[in-house]
Amino acid sequence: MSVFSVSNLRVRFGGVQAVRGVSFGVEAGRTLAIVGESGSGKSVSLLGATGLLPGTATVEGTALHRGRNLLRLPARDLRSVRGRDIGFVFQDPLSNLHPMKTIGEQVGEAISAHRRIASSVCRERVLALLDEVGIAAPASRLGDYPRHLSGGMRQRVMIAMAIALDPSLIVADEPTTALDVTIQASILDLLKRLQENHGTALIFVSHDLGVVSDIADDVVVMRHGQVVEQAPAGQIYTRPAEPYTRELLGAARFGKPRVMTRARPVATDAPLLVADGLARRFGKGRPVLDDVSFSVGEGEIVGLVGESGSGKSTIARLVAGLDRPDAGVISFRGKAYASPDLGGAAWDVKLRAAVQVVFQDPYASLNPRRRVGAILADPFLLYGERDKSRLHIKVRQLVADVELPLEVIERYPSQLSGGQRQRVAIARAIALEPSLVVADEPVSALDITTQARIIALLRRLRDRRGLSFLFISHDLGVIAELCDRVIVLENGHIVEAGPTERVFDRPEHPYTRRLIAAVPGQRRHAPVALAESIRQHV
Questions:
Q1: 424 contacts 376 by C-beta, under 8 angstroms
Q2: pTM metric for this prediction
Q3: Parallel, antiparallel, or unpaired for β 16-27 and 169-173?
Q4: What is the sign, positive or negative, of the torsion defined by CA atoms of 498, 502, 507, 513?
């Protein structure tokens, strides 16, 4: 019998039908994965079924938890079910943990909100929970705030809160999307172990069939608010019935990164960018970077990969001129522009145009109050273009270059999909025809099929314009598909570097081998041959 099931679930926002007659169920001790692209209705279905949507939503159908229809429960009763009988783990723990409350307080509240308990007993339970989810020395962490923890540790705290009262169901909505591969693997292992220990039913929401292949027993595939296909995981991964499921399988990454590029011939001329002996320290802690040296050639895509805290984004900020090194020097076409002694004055007009940045979150980096056309016109205006007709032509050409429809010019960022917003951010970065683009995790917040389209777009821009990229990512699969060379960072040091094919096929450093071993899709359901065949024909 299902612990939780929905039948003919429908969700409407005003005149927009977001979910159309969705049905599925999950039994105790089993994992149901719900997969699909952004906007497919995965999260909306679960939020609607558990009463977490705003009052503007209309939810119809049935959502049964242990025989009770949650859609007909009074608000007070529904609140008692959530947290006590149904635990939630969301994608961004930093947004879901209170920034002004300690970890101990927040995990304790997950218990005391539903059960009368002595403070001393509650403290012991909190310590036991933090220990169970793998927080080392939990007693020393009780007074920490979320900002003191890494992304993986914050997600473990969220899981501790979710399992605090031994719920019969855990809903994990994209719980590993923003995490690096080793932390992602440890979180998947943790969820599976907790499920086995407690007999909990688990609903795991993801856009990536590669990730859920390591954890799912059953899979529901959604698209445009409807269920396209649902079956046991083994059947989905070996005998997919629907073209859309095959498309998702073709975009997914299973096991060892699949290298799509070959090292470009090394130019005999001087490199475009040279970083020599970079060091950076924040406060009195250990150095974030220590004696880091690398180069980027003309028309080359160089990948920086490593776990969270390895120093990738610090390098991006230094190269982009958003920070200054404590030691070392960065040169562009032979001219030094970043060192402890050089400030903003080293950035002349030509250099500012030549080095551009694409950030991880396009919604945060685009002004929500301005239309796309105005956003894309800004670089030209800043560099003296005042003729309106020429400005209009240049903006339209940018939109065409990143393969967007011209009507987006009149839209606001909130009216675009995540992939469209990122294309606008890329368009803004290439407006002044730069030589180097620093791309800091530009696809990590996107679903797997949108990632594939953005990767293909970046490759085409390199080929058409001769652009060079310094591409930062925690996703080895993305690096393998896009980059000519790869640099592996661990704790602020370069531990391995070389052509992408060599690094992934014959890794020399134990840390690189550990990163590759942690890539999802190597354990339970990993149809590498099938996925490769699908990829060639979709």
A1: yes
A2: 0.81
A3: unpaired
A4: positive
